[in-house]
Amino acid sequence: MSMATEEERATKAREAGDREAARLWRAWRTVHEMVQDRGYQLSEEEVKISLKDFRYQYSGPDGSIDRNKMKFSADPSEIMVKRYTNLPTTAQPVPPPPDVGRIWVEFLPGDNVGIKQMRNFAQFLSQNSHHTGILITNVSITPAAMKIIPAVANETRIECFMEQDLLVNITHHELVPKHVLLSKEERGKLLERYRLKDTQLPRIQLSDPIARYLGLRRGQVVKIIRKSETAGRYASYRLCV
Amino acid sequence: MAAPKSILKKTSYPATTSRSKDERDREVALYHANLLQERKDIELKILLNTETLIDYPLASKPYDASNPSPVDARSFKKLVQPFQPSDYDSLIVERNINEHCGYSLCPNDRVKDGAAGKYRLIGKTGKAKNFKVVEKGELEKWCSSACAKRALYVRVQLSQVPAWERDITYGMEIDLLDESKSGEDPTVERHEKMDSFTPDDPGKKNATDLALERGDKGVGAKKGLVDVDIKEKDVQRPAQAPSFETEDISERLESLHLQLEGHTTVFGSKRQRRHHEELEGIDEDGYCSDTDWKLD
Ligand SMILES: [Zn+2]
């Protein structure tokens, strides 16, 4: 009798461990896809890792996934650099260099994320000259800790996601149209062609899930490509605000 | 079209009429930009102060929460001064994340009750009126109920008004529950405070007062839109001593002996009296009946 319950308990624990591993694997896959979709360089092997390989590489001695191991960096591709390249203007014949660089992604273990954890993350990014950092947590971050992000914005860009937000890749959903970030050059041409001011475009909020996925910044323009049964494919544009 | 006739004497504001609209627009824009910047600066200061206070107290034994080091006590009061109660609650959360007792001057760890269950019964042995059901999470913010009481004592003194909208003359002075034991003459500090609120020139003080009356009361309004030039009123007739003859003093007879040059002194500031009233809600266990901490 007690042997059976002992076994049951072990089975339950193993199942819970499996679920947790699968959950973290899905978040790991999504964040890799996200980084790749933004234009950073990642190999297909890194992005399309199997659950088995994931468990093999990221488990601790007790067999459960160790979030401390879940971190990676990536560099922007040439295409991405080009997208962020500033155009010369009459006021600035030599434009400032593109505002992109290495990205660092880290899963943070622990039940609490406050000011200290955020400050440590910011310091790590600055010390290693990481241009951007993505912090992924299992719990929500305190409002006070979130205020660190604008306070260090001139040193490094910090973005935060929760594991549960990354369990599915929202851009893979059939009802979500494709969003493509326009380069500065494309943006200029678009506005010129339609004789528009950027503020005349419809808007997408910085906090919109797709804007967060693509890491959009205020003032950038995305092209949204929809498929329509009657009209085929058509594009619309939105200004990130 | 003639401009509407001003109710103000023209001579009072010669500058306004001679300035162009553009100039005034620019000034108004600048004024609002300054206010916004002031607010941002204060918000950043609150964040940095919170960060500093996570690791308080700095002094070690023999100092503790009931007997804080005077240096720590003084800087704690200063750091917490721009806080609203919500900022103070955030500080407690941040200290708890790092396992510290929620009261900034306490060097202990918070208690952590490993047992399951959301509620705890306290005061089981004493009188029936002390018996309470308390949420476990509330108890786990502190090392003891004494610290909960100390922290609440500070919290009720914090202004609900954001620091950037507070009166410049608001004499914020935080008292600690254990003040008398801290071994420092509190009057010394009080004098310093009073000095700091004495404006260097009376014109500035008057301008400040007028700005306050107009509602430009934040610290951001130091360089407010009112430009005041106070002029001494010329009195032609000879000065006369005030007399009782024309006044009915029967109503004031009772307190007349307390007056000094027509002013009746009241002991304790308005604020202190208010805190007294608020603190009466706290019983021996340090749990206030009326806070959003759900201690009751
Ligand atoms: Zn304590």
TrEMBL record, chain A:
Keywords: DNA-directed RNA polymerase, Nucleus, Transcription. This is DNA-directed RNA polymerases I, II, and III subunit RPABC1. It comes from the Eukaryota. The keyword Transcription applies. One of its GO terms (biological process) is transcription initiation at RNA polymerase II promoter. GO terms for cellular component: RNA polymerase I complex; RNA polymerase II, core complex; RNA polymerase III complex. NCBIfam families: PRK09570.1. Pfam families: RNA_pol_Rpb5_C (PF01191), RNA_pol_Rpb5_N (PF03871). Belongs to the archaeal Rpo5/eukaryotic RPB5 RNA polymerase subunit family. Its main location: nucleus. Residues 18-123 form the RNA polymerase Rpb5 N-terminal domain. Residues 168-240 form the RNA polymerase subunit H/Rpb5 C-terminal domain. It comes from Hyphodiscus hymeniophilus. Gene3D superfamilies: RNA polymerase, Rpb5, N-terminal domain, RPB5-like RNA polymerase subunit. It is found in: Nucleus. GO terms for molecular function: DNA binding; DNA-directed RNA polymerase activity. InterPro entries: Arch_Rpo5/euc_Rpb5 (IPR014381), RNA_pol_Rpb5_N (IPR005571), RNA_pol_Rpb5_N_sf (IPR036710), RNA_pol_subH/Rpb5_C (IPR000783), RNA_pol_subH/Rpb5_CS (IPR020608), RPB5-like_sf (IPR035913).
From TrEMBL, chain B:
Its main location: nucleus. GO terms for molecular function: RNA polymerase core enzyme binding; RNA polymerase II CTD heptapeptide repeat phosphatase activity; zinc ion binding. It catalyses: O-phospho-L-seryl-[protein] + H2O = L-seryl-[protein] + phosphate; O-phospho-L-threonyl-[protein] + H2O = L-threonyl-[protein] + phosphate. GO terms for cellular component: cytoplasm; nucleus. InterPro entries: Rtr1/RPAP2, Rtr1/RPAP2_dom, Rtr1/RPAP2_sf. Its EC number is 3.1.3.16. It comes from the Eukaryota. Keywords: Hydrolase, Metal-binding, Nucleus, Protein phosphatase, Zinc, Zinc-finger. It is found in: Nucleus. Residues 1-24, 180-207, 268-296 are annotated as: Disordered. It holds the Pfam family RPAP2_Rtr1. Residues 78-167 form the RTR1-type domain. Belongs to the RPAP2 family. Putative RNA polymerase II subunit B1 C-terminal domain (CTD) phosphatase involved in RNA polymerase II transcription regulation. This is RNA polymerase II subunit B1 CTD phosphatase RPAP2 homolog. It comes from Hyphodiscus hymeniophilus.
